[in-house]
Design brief:
Layout lengths: L1 H16 L3 E7 L4 E7 L10 H14 L4 E9 L11 E9 L2
Antiparallel strand pairs: 1-2, 2-4, 3-4
Length: about 100
Amino acid sequence: MFKKVIFYVLLLSVLVGCATTSSGPIPAGKDTYVITRQEGAFPSGDEPLLAEAIGEAGVFCSKFDKDMKLINTYQNAGPYILGNYPKATVTFSCVEK
């Protein structure tokens, strides 16, 4: 029984480590926000993180009936090993339509 519990705890830990995390939108100045998406452990390098972050920014601005204006984007370079997981950061503002 104890071995099964340990197995499921380890399995859950691995699955949580594989998840994509998102932070944001975080205020970064007057009418400026930042969204970051990062892949977890065992990344393939093919994650559409930048597109997902830009989409999330657009959805955020649409809640205020505004358009998203892209200010800056950043994606870290590989190789994706030793904690250097795929990561995309989008800086944007919400502007009047």
